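Blinded run. Sample ID left blank on purpose so nobody reads anything into the name before looking at the predicted structure. Input follows.
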Amino acid sequence: MGGPDRPTVPVIVGATGIGKTAVATELAGLLSIAVISADARQVYRHLDIGTAKPGPDVRRILPHYGIDLIEPGERYSAGAFARDAVEWLAEARAAGRTPLVVGGTGLYVRALADGLFREPPLDAARREPLRVWVARLTSERAAHWAARLDRGFAGGGRQRAGRAIEVALLTGRPLSWWQRDARERGVMRPWYIHLTLPRELVTRRIAERVDRMLASGLVAEVEGLLGRGIRADAAGLDGIGYREVCAMLRGEIALSGLRDAIVTSTRRYAKRQETWFRHQLRPGQGGPAARESVWVLDASEAPARLAGQIAERWRQRSAA
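Blinded prediction complete.
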């Protein structure tokens, strides 16, 4: 299905906290699958609680790729993800498993489906002082400059903002242009399963998730990372949840306000994700075939029921 060189791969997407991992775990009881995690935060080792990384019990019964790849502070791009995912896709199929992409990082998903953009050459001598300047900016100021230089900048933390600034200033074109107009062929044909919920239910699930993270020791996790000498502004720790805990430890947020600060940041991020998925999940040039490649599912139903629906539809598509 999808052709011998670009097989069709199911892709579960949706806003943070909507229940993607729970559905994938239930699906593992119905289909022989392996998950490719399309989550830009789960690539970091030691960032477990704040990224809602699937635990050892889940990963024992359901193989996962794309998790625990690099140390906090290291960089990992959508391009690196797509290149690594080629091997993960092949390894999953060789083991007799259907690859299932699961995640909320839209750029990672699009890198697989639509292909990588050709990396623009960046002059190293000019890039280094620019990198130093960006490192001195707050996350908010970095995002401000990225948005001014690239109208297509959709946020995503200091690392992404720094890259948008570098590409715009060193090539004369915004990163969004390179991603849109200098693109190579994707490695798969996606069948998107877009999990959605009314906004008030998303907010409730986010609040419950943050409560679980804090009860599970999110603050202690961050304290342990900082105690190992990892900088508070290191790539990974600048993500939602971690940056608020770092701010609390610096005295910038009261402990009593930590939970609400994380909920607010997560809710805003979920809103941006939903907007992105709504507008970007458009395979090809439209038409019936494109519409059939995006299936919107109400995630208010139980994960087991959703998994059953997905398994049935996947079997029908595979047999067609």
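Unblinding after everyone has recorded impressions. The radius of gyration is 20 Å.
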